Amino acid sequence: MFESSRRVRVALGMLVVGATVAISSLSVVRAERANPDNSKVYHCNSGTACVGGSSTGHGTLGVWGIGPNDGVLGVTSGTNGKAGVRGLSTEASGVGYGVLGRSLNGHGVVGIATLKSDSGVVGINEKGFGVTAESKGHGAVALVSIAESHHTAIFYGFNSTQPANCTIDADANLSCTGNIGAGSAIETTHRNDRGERVHAYASEAASATIEDAGTARMTGGVADVRFDPAFASVMDRRWYYVFLTPLGDTRGLYVAMKTPLGFQVRETERGRSNLEFDYRIVAHPVDSGNDRLPAAR
Fold it and tell me: CB neighbours of 276 closer than 8 A, spacing ≥ 6?
């Protein structure tokens, strides 16, 4: 057993990093100095821990590290889930934190990984939130994600139990395998021909729809319009709507027939005009439900 040169009983339930500690293979003996050594490294190969801090007092810390650089640094060479610093909360009620990072001028918690397959920060909770970010400052941000490469995605989240994921790529494009909802109108931002940023709003429908538009030509009062193959592959071809706009003088146009491959347009009163017309197709996506204004969850 390593022995400290002296032991001082102090009525504190904390260990100040740098305190003299005596270690045995069976237990951890804690002692404190009023003036800890400027630099001390403890080596051990058995027992619970080389340095331990235990607190039973309310509001008293188990381990406290203060320094002009890193207050506490944990390094591990182990594999299979070994951690440089591990935080565990056994609080049965109320709020207990496994790891709490707090800073008065800087980042509360920083995670850095040098391998592509590793993560800077991993949060695991079997019954609740893996990671929670909270900010109370006026104009502050609870969670910041920074990509420092032209090819680095800003965010990637996935559900490992099923093929479901969301990605914000390096160009800030959001892509999700599921639906994207909004609490109010869906708003987008564009630049006009003067370079000014302006807001636009997405149209809304009572049920899920997908649309296509184009221009066709009528000859002798008849036109057969076939669906674009790419559009046809994502639409439910059992039902769809067609809206027509003639681009010339005519007695009127109507949809004479609908098929899974396209539709036929004729001129009214057996007209035989030769002219172009615009059309708009509104269909139901083949992979969506047909619910009308379903109740919000």
Answer: 215, 216, 217, 218, 247, 248
Judge if pTM exceeds 0.85. Answer: no
For the chain, report the end-to-end CA distance as a whole number of angstroms.
Answer: 62
Judge whether 266 and 251 are in contact, CB under 8 Å.
no
Q: What is the mean pLDDT for each group of 10 consecutive residues in the chain (297 residues)?
A: 40 36 42 56 77 76 77 74 72 66 77 76 78 83 87 90 92 89 86 96 92 98 98 95 97 97 97 97 90 86
Cα(41)–Cα(288) distance, integer angstroms: 63
Q: Which two structure tokens, joined as six digits, stand for 194?
A: 């003067």
Q: At 185, list the tokens.
A: 């109108």
Q: Which residues does residue 280 pair with via DSSP β-bridges, in sequence order?
A: 213, 243
For 216-253, the pLDDT digits (tens) are 999 999 999 999 999 999 999 999 999 999 999 999 99
Two structure tokens written together for 39: 């630099």
Which of 246, 245, 228 has the alpha carbon at shortest distance from 237?
228
3-state secondary structure string, 236-253?
Answer: EEEEEEEEEEECCCCCCE
Reported as half-sphere exposure (CB side, CA atoms, 13 A), residue 213 has a value of 6
Residue 14 to residues 22, 30, 88, 98, 145, Cα–Cα distance (Å): 16, 10, 16, 17, 34
Percent of the chain having pLDDT more than 70? 84
Please give the C-alpha separations between residue 122 and each of 134, 144, 179, 234, 285, in angstroms, as whole numbers: 17, 15, 26, 37, 37
- Give the Cα separation of 258 and 260 in Å (integer): 7
Residue type, 223: A
Q: How far apart are CA 13 and CA 59, in angstroms?
A: 9
